[in-house]
Every structure is written in structure tokens, then in C-alpha cells.
């Protein structure tokens, strides 16, 4: 431990979590001002009444004060905003497919079968993502080409202005049919081209790909421009094929006109095939293929070839619009196209699930020595249900919007396959209701049984709130629910995927057998129409709320923040990865502070911010010289770095990488956690138990090893410190004079209000924080019997 000198100061750099926060709340001040950043990534400090930056409250070390500067990095502007949230809501299935790529199990080194399975899985995930884009275009074509152009605008139709003369003009119907496809492609191009400009000063490129630290693989993808063009080309080619007859037959036309239609249609098919093959063969920058086998393909998809391919696709769509002189009464290609794409998507998802099973088994040796509570969810197979949910949600969104528009127009016939989609969602809705009822009944039964047996299912809370019976009762109830949610949250995704897949089985069987819907399926079909209509209306409502009232669209914002952490790897039409901007700018700011020999920097992250802070700390430990690295500390609060991220993303944030980070920080990683927090939990310890009035457990040691830890010590503010974890009493003890106090059960919020926060920052800064307990409030003495004693807290 470094001995603080008279010029020692501590810079506490805070990073907030999802859904953003105000600069004032982040730095615990009534006013805050920017001191660095570009408006999107803002570094703020507390301010006085003249709006001048001021330092934060001092820290105590060895009985003397140490100056502290509180800064906050505000990144909420990268994911907030009405228009952005609205767009992310529409593209949520794409985001899920992209997240699924990062959930793949790790590839053990030197294992050829695992390496080949990894290559196959990455290729299939990119193909599944590409098919999602194609599915979106076919669904748009169903609405614009079939429902509107072919049916509503047919001469003599009573729908809209179909009977008027402009509607009867062939070129008007062709333009109305293909213009929405072109508009959607333009929107996809605009969204996929958005990226962040990084404000940093001479930050070297990270060389931590093989370091084993958390987030080392979170890097920009050099294939993203190529992948973007391939998705756009596939979308335009799909529009051409659907407009000119479909995947198997071209529109009939005499003479040269028919020849031109056939040629243009084959050009569209070729564009889709080239895009699918290119997406599957593109290499992976995360280290899964060290020899970079796709280097030749990246060279073939350079800037010039990409422009040629993109221009060809646009010209093909214009040519298809010009060739669509006679719009038929029904666009049979739209119906067949939706079914073919949906069948291919289902086949690819099934192959992903099948290949994931042996891949997860081969990767099991990397985590089989870990406690069960730290192992990956679903044995490393979690990517399969996530990509299945993305595909089924993508199909459901399109069908729901089409059914809703059909009801609003009061005219038109949708593709025959949509009736089977309605059955799918009807069965899924019924199963979801039954599954929800079963989960609720089981949860209630478990809780009632534990209460009936007087089971002590919150013994840690009894230690934290000893002598405070009312606080113990409130904490124990919240502790139980939080533990239940952390332990079973991933089961929601598994149940959702199982429900949708089980609902798809009878629908797919009936459709491929060519069986008309039997009488027993009519109730499910009606329920499915209602579910899809509600799904479409809920989506449109979410988009409207996100655009008009961003403060009320919290769920959309949270989902966008979580999905936008991951770089564009499987699908390019997703929110830009804010981690690729936040982490380098945090690294740059810390390096700037550490240039002063008397400065120690503590990165402090809350919730999602803890992941950003941990990744930034890992990058810094790889880059900094030893004399600066030993002045770096880390504080995480309400973090998911143990119970969620290593279990959902075992190849990106594995448990071993956290152990390596803890060892390099040598005790300067402090984690604040509450048992009442359903979103956060312990980070550096596990296998906790209460024995003989002591909290015991295993965890990361300061020397870099893992194993049994000494019993937890009670800090001066009432917290139990086990290893690097500080278990906070919730409700808090206090209030304490001179400190802000947050009453009640705080759960995931307001960690900085706890007096243990300052002690954790001091320990992370390498200071001796063993000062005397905080003073308690004075209590007025009374004569015996003067008035009843208040209830003990």
C-alpha cells in the first residue's frame, strides 16, 4: 500500500448505469458543470453558485483528511432521445440477434472440434441475422405490394382511392408498392451508419485481446462496413424478387418484357445469394479465428467493390419498378416469399441450437471447477433461445402490423401463411398464460412453505440488522424477492423461447402438410389475431411514447441501453455500441489524472456502469506503467458482474477474467452490494453462509488467488465486509450528522448515500480507511415513565 503524502489527492470518476441520470445526481451535488467531453460523453464536476467546478468532500485516512475530486462521466445522451428510442424499439429483434452472438460459449484453445464449431456457429448467426433483414423486407412487401398496391389500389376497389384515375395508372401502383421498400432500406442504411466520434488524446490501441481480462474482446469490427452493405444488398435484392413474381416464378409477360423481368429477377436472386454467402464467410475479429481466414473476402469487399454492389442493387430495384407495368390482383410472390424466408430462418435457428449443444459441452471444461451459482446459464446454450426469440418476435411484429393495417383499411386479403402465424401466437399466448400462472403458483408456494417452517432464508440480513427488528422484517422480505429474481430471471427467456417454439410446431406442421386449419384451431387463431394486434399496437405505442414523451418510455430506454453495449457483430442495423466510445474516453481521462504523481484515481460504476468501469480498468492495467497502475482503484455498486454477465456472456466476461482483474488490482477492487437489490449482487465472493454469528464465504484474494476468506468484518457504518464485497444494511443505519440519508429500502438506487461509500473509495484508492465509527445522533434523556419508549428500529 502506498503511503499518502501531503500532496495526495483522490479523483473519484463515477459512471452511471442504464437509463441515464442527471449530472447533479451523479456527482451528488445541487449543481454540476461540464469540464470535458463533447456533449454526448460528458465529464462533469460539482459546481458552486457561480457555476465553478469545486472538489468533493474529503476522505479520511489514518486520522487525517485527504482531498477528493468527484467527477462523473455522463453517457446517457448516446442512447436517450425520442427519435433514437423509437428506432431502437422497431429494431429490437435485430438487437437480440446481435446480442446472441456475444453469448456464444468460449472456444478452448487447442481444441480443433470446438474451433470448427465456433466458426460454424458464428456463420449461422450471421446468416440468421441476414434472414431477419430479408424477413422484414418481405413483410413490408406484403403490406405495400400486395395489400396496398395490388388490392387496395386495384381499379374499381373501394379501398382508399382505388377507384380514382391515379390509382388505376400502372406506374402509380408500382411506385406505391416499391417506394416503402426503398424507404425502409434507406432507414436501415442511415441507422447502421450512425457511429460515435471518440474524444481521446493519444490513447494507444488496446492490445488486450489475449489478456484474459473482462471485456478484452469488446472491440470494433472491421467487417461492419462490409456486413452493412451485404444486408442492404440482400434487402434490395429481396424487394426485386418479390416485386417480379417471387423466389420460384417470375411474372408472366410477353416478348422482351418477360425476358427483362426474368433477367432482373435473377439479378435479385444473385444479389441475395452473394449477400448470404458473404455474411457467412466474413471473419470474426474477437479472436475465435486467429489466422483471419476471411481476410481475402474483406479485401474483395473493399470500398470500391461495395459501392459497385450497392449501386447495382439500387439499379435493380429501379428496374423492377419500371418493369412492373401490370400489377396483378394478388402478389403471390409476397406470400411465398414470407413462407420461404420464415422456413429458412427456422431451419438456421434449429441448426444453431443443435451445434450449440456440443460446443457448450466442449467449453464446459473452462467452468466445470466453478461453483454451480457461477456457471453459465443453460450450460452455455443461452444463445439458441435468444436467437429463436429474435426470429419469432421479428415474424410476430410484421404479422401484427399487417393484421392491424388490414383491420384499419377494412379491405384486403393477407397471405395464407399468416393464418398459421395467428395459430402460432394463439398457442403461444395460451401457453404463456399457463406458464405465468404456474410460475406464480410455484413462487407463492415456496414462499409460503418457507414462512410456515420459519425457515431463515435471509440470515445475512439478520446479521446486518441485529437489534433492529423493524428494519430486519422489511429487509428480509425484500431480500427474498431479490434473491428469487436474480436466481430465475434467465428462466423467463427460456420459458418465452420454449412457449414460442412449442406454439410454432403445430402451426408449421399444419402449413407444410397443406392442411387447412381444423375447427379446433379456430379459437387459437382468434386469440393469435388478438395477440398479434396487441403486439403491433404495443409496439406502435412504445414508438409513439419514445418519440413524444421520452421520460415515460423507460422500458424502451432500458432495453436500448442494454442492447447497445455490444458492438455490431452479427447484425449491423443495431444501435451503435456506446462502449466503444465510453471506455476509450474513460481511459483517456484516467491517464490524464494519473500523470500527476500525487493523484490516485478510483473508477466507480453503478449497475451497467460497473461493467464499463471494469472494462476501462482492465484496459488501463494493460497500458499503464507499474507506478501508475498501483494508483488505480475500482468501486462497483449494484453490479451484475457475477450473477449476470459471466453467466450470459461466458466468452466475453468469464469468471476467470474477473479473478485476473481482482488479482491485478491487489485488493483495490471494492464492491458495494445489497441483498435487497434484485438487479445487483455480490461480485468478488460466493458460497456465502452464516455460521455461529459470522458471515463466511469464498472469493478473490488480494494476492490474485481464489478460495476461502476470513470471516466478514463489521465496518464502522454497520456494513459487513467479506473479501472485496461490502454488504450494506438496507434500510440504512443512521441518519448520521453531516451526511445525506436515504430512508427506507433503497434496493438498486442511491448507493452513494450510504456512509460505506466513502470508506470503499478510500480502500480502493489504497488508503488506510480504518477510522473510528461515525458519530451517532444525540439522544435526549428522559425521566423514567415520562413517556412510552419508542419502538426499537
Number of strands: 14
Structural class comes to: alpha/beta
- Poorly predicted runs are 205-209, 285-291, 775-793
Overall mean confidence score, pLDDT: 81
Strand content: 5-15%
Question: Alpha-carbon distance between the termini?
Answer: 39 Å
Estimate the helix proportion, in percent: 40-55%
The DSSP helix count reads: 23
Question: What characterizes the major β-sheet?
Answer: 11 strands, mixed
InterPro entries: AB_hydrolase_fold (IPR029058)
Transmembrane segments: 124-150, 170-191, 229-248, 260-282, 308-329, 341-363, 384-408, 420-443, 492-512, 524-544
Protein name: Integral membrane protein
Keywords: Membrane, Transmembrane, Transmembrane helix
Could you describe the 3D structure shown?
InterPro entries: AB_hydrolase_fold. The chain crosses the membrane at residues 124-150, 170-191, 229-248, 260-282, 308-329, 341-363, 384-408, 420-443, 492-512, 524-544. It comes from Saccharothrix yanglingensis. The structure is a single chain. The protein has helices at 23-26, 82-90, 92-102, 112-152, 165-168, 170-193, 224-243, 255-281, 295-300, 303-323, 332-363, 383-409, 417-452, 459-464, 469-512, 522-548, 554-563, 579-594, 608-623, 626-629, 645-648, 655-665, 756-764; strands spanning 9-15, 32-37, 42-46, 59-61, 64-74, 599-606, 632-637, 669-673, 685-691, 694-700, 706-708, 713-714, 720-722, 725-727. The strands form 2 sheets. Strands 1, 2, 3, 4, 5, 6, 7, 8, 12, 13 and 14 form an 11-stranded mixed beta sheet that branches. A 3-stranded antiparallel beta sheet has the order 9-10-11. The chain starts with 8 loop residues before the first strand and ends in a 29-residue tail after the last helix. Helix 3 runs antiparallel to helix 4 (112-152) and helix 11 packs antiparallel against helix 12 (383-409). The protein is of the alpha/beta class. A hairpin with a 2-residue loop joins strand 9 and strand 10. It has 23 helices and 14 strands.
Amino acid at each position: 500500500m502506498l503511503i499518502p503524502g501531503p500532496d495526495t489527492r483522490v479523483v473519484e470518476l463515477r459512471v452511471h448505469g442504464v437509463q441515464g441520470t442527471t449530472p447533479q445526481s451523479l456527482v451528488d451535488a445541487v449543481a454540476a458543470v461540464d469540464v470535458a467531453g463533447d456533449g454526448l460523453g460528458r465529464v462533469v464536476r460539482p459546481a458552486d453558485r457561480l457555476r465553478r467546478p469545486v472538489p468533493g468532500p474529503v476522505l479520511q485516512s489514518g486520522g487525517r483528511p485527504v482531498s477528493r475530486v468527484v467527477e462523473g462521466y455522463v453517457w446517457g445522451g448516446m442512447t436517450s432521445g425520442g427519435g433514437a428510442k423509437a428506432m431502437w424499439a422497431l429494431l429490437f429483434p435485430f438487437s437480440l440477434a446481435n446480442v446472441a452472438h456475444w453469448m456464444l460459449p468460449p472456444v478452448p484453445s487447442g481444441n480443433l472440434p470446438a474451433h470448427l464449431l465456433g466458426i460454424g456457429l458464428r456463420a449461422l448467426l450471421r446468416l440468421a441475422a441476414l434472414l431477419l433483414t430479408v424477413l422484414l423486407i418481405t413483410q413490408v412487401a406484403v403490406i405495400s405490394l400486395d395489400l396496398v398496391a395490388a388490392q387496395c389500389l386495384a381499379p374499381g376497389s373501394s379501398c382508399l382511392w382505388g377507384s380514382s384515375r391515379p390509382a388505376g395508372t400502372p406506374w402509380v401502383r408500382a411506385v406505391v408498392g416499391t417506394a416503402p421498400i426503398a424507404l425502409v432500406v434507406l432507414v436501415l442504411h442511415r441507422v447502421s451508419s450512425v457511429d460515435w466520434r471518440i474524444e481521446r488524446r493519444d490513447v494507444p490501441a488496446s492490445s488486450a485481446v489475449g489478456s484474459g481480462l473482462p471485456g478484452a474482446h469488446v472491440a470494433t469490427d472491421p467487417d461492419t462496413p462490409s456486413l452493412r452493405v451485404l444486408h442492404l444488398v440482400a434487402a434490395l435484392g429481396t424487394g426485386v424478387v418479390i416485386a417480379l413474381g417471387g423466389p420460384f416464378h417470375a411474372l408472366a409477360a410477353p416478348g422482351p418484357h418477360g425476358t427483362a423481368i426474368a433477367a432482373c429477377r435473377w439479378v435479385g436472386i444473385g444479389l441475395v445469394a452473394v449477400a448470404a454467402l458473404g455474411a457467412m464467410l466474413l471473419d470474426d475479429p474477437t479472436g475465435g479465428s486467429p489466422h483471419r481466414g476471411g481476410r481475402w473476402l474483406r479485401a474483395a469487399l473493399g470500398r470500391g467493390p461495395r459501392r459497385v454492389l450497392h449501386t447495382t442493387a439500387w439499379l435493380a430495384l429501379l428496374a423492377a419498378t419500371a418493369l412492373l407495368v401490370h400489377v396483378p390482383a394478388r402478389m403471390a410472390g409476397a406470400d411465398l416469399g414470407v413462407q420461404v424466408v420464415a422456413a429458412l430462418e427456422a431451419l438456421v435457428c434449429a441448426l444453431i441450437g443443435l451445434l450449440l449443444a456440443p460446443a457448450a459441452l466442449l467449453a464446459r471444461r473452462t467452468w466445470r471447477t466453478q461453483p454451480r451459482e457461477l456457471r453459465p446459464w443453460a450450460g452455455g446454450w443461452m444463445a439458441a433461445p435468444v436467437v429463436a426469440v429474435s426470429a419469432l418476435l421479428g415474424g410476430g411484429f410484421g404479422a401484427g402490423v399487417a393484421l392491424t393495417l388490414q383491420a384499419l383499411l377494412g379491405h384486403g386479403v393477407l397471405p395464407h401463411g399468416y393464418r398459421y402465424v395467428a395459430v402460432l401466437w394463439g398457442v403461444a399466448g395460451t401457453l404463456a398464460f399457463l406458464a405465468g400462472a404456474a410460475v406464480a403458483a410455484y413462487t407463492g408456494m415456496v414462499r409460503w412453505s418457507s414462512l410456515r417452517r420459519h425457515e431463515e432464508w435471509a440470515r445475512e440480513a439478520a446479521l446486518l440488522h441485529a437489534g433492529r427488528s423493524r428494519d430486519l422484517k422489511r429487509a428480509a422480505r425484500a431480500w427474498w424477492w431479490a434473491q428469487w429474481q436474480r436466481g430465475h430471471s434467465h428462466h423467463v427467456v427460456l420459458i418465452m423461447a420454449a412457449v414460442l417454439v412449442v406454439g410454432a410446431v403445430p402451426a408449421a406442421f399444419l402449413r407444410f402438410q397443406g392442411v387447412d386449419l381444423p375447427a379446433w384451431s379456430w379459437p387459437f387463431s382468434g386469440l393469435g389475431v388478438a395477440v398479434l394486434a396487441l403486439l403491433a399496437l404495443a409496439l406502435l405505442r412504445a414508438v409513439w411514447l419514445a418519440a413524444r414523451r421520452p421520460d415515460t418510455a423507460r422500458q424502451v430506454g432500458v432495453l436500448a441501453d442494454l442492447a447497445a453495449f455490444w458492438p455490431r457483430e452479427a447484425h449491423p442495423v443495431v444501435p451503435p455500441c456506446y462502449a466503444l466510445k465510453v471506455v476509450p474516453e474513460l481511459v483517456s481521462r484516467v491517464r490524464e489524472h494519473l500523470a500527476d504523481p500525487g493523484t490516485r484515481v478510483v473508477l466507480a460504476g453503478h449497475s451497467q456502469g460497473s461493467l464499463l468501469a471494469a472494462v476501462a480498468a482492465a484496459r488501463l492495467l494493460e497500458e499503464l506503467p507499474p507506478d501508475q497502475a498501483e494508483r488505480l482503484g475500482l468501486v462497483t455498486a449494484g453490479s451484475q458482474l457475477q450473477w449476470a454477465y459471466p453467466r450470459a456472456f461466458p466468452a466475453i466476461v468469464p469468471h476467470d477474467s474477473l479473478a485476473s482483474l481482482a488479482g491485478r488490482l491487489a485488493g483495490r477492487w471494492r464492491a458495494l452490494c445489497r441483498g435487497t437489490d434484485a438487479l445487483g449482487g455480490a461480485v468478488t465472493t460466493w458460497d456465502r453462509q452464516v455460521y455461529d454469528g459470522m458471515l463466511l464465504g469464498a472469493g478473490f484474494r488480494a494476492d490474485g488467488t481464489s478460495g476461502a476468506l476470513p470471516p466478514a468484518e463489521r465496518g464502522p457504518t454497520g456494513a459487513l465486509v467479506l473479501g472485496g464485497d461490502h454488504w450494506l444494511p438496507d434500510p440504512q443505519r443512521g441518519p448520521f450528522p453531516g451526511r445525506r440519508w436515504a430512508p427506507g429500502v433503497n434496493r438498486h438506487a442511491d448507493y452513494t448515500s450510504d456512509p460505506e461509500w466513502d470508506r470503499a473509495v478510500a480502500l480502493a484508492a489504497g488508503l488506510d480507511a480504518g477510522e473510528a465509527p461515525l458519530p451517532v445522533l444525540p439522544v435526549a434523556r428522559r425521566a423514567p415513565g415520562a413517556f412510552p419508549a419508542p419502538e426499537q428500529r
